[in-house]
Amino acid sequence: MSALVGGGWGAGALPRAAGGAPPPPPATVTTAVVTKAAAASCATGKYQKQVEGYLKQLGGYGAVTVDGKQSAADCAAIVKFQKRFGIQPAKGLAGPSTFDVAKRLAATKTAACKAKKSGITFCVDLTNQTTWVMKNGKVHYKPTVVRTGMKGYRTPAGTFKINKRTKKEWSNPYEVWLPYWQRFHGGMGFHQTTTYIHDKWRGSHGCVNLLPADAKAYYNIGKYGMTVKTIGRRPGT
């Protein structure tokens, strides 16, 4: 990767120096310099080594070295992970929220859902506060984070069916819009979170809160009558 230092030239022939000789090529910023600068801008978090290990296990976020030392590659992978799961700020610091999310995703066992071998099953791991979608017995949408019912409003474990779908549902009890609503049990359903999903002291009133991109994806996958399986129990409920 290279970049011009100082002024550059527009399209067309390069200007020639006196005597007709072409000018020397523009100076470039070497990859080594960029890498060093990027590494210097990323702080090493308290959970650096643990997060590196989880990201290596999960895969898909770039090359990481599990040594507890921040590098440009490590930082880029952590930032990508943070952006994917809505962790703020997404600056590559391996702090408590990043550690917690990575740990929960790494602990999620998709086979535990025991999805049927045909059709779509929406799976929710209440213990790890994660969700994923199975299709014909295989992972169709990879695990992501959720927030389910808080104490007093526990989301129950069980097998349910999607029985209502609206792109924007109004909640009368709580006076808030619920984007990408898919109800599956009583007044409970999937919907886009209306608050920061990583505030651990928060919880829903039984619904399965999703990040915006996940809520939209689930709505696009979902249909009336599709199976929803919730397993485990949210800690503290």
Automatic annotation (TrEMBL):
CDD domains: YkuD_like. Coiled coil: none annotated. It comes from the Bacteria. Keywords: Cell shape, Cell wall biogenesis/degradation, Peptidoglycan synthesis, Transferase. The active site is at 191 (proton donor/acceptor), 207 (nucleophile). InterPro entries: LD-transpeptidase, LD_TPept_cat_dom, PGBD-like_sf, Transpep_catalytic_dom. It holds the Pfam family YkuD. Pathway: Cell wall biogenesis; peptidoglycan biosynthesis. The keyword Transferase applies. Residues 120-231 form the L,D-TPase catalytic domain. Signal peptide: none annotated. This is L,D-transpeptidase family protein. It comes from Actinoplanes sandaracinus.
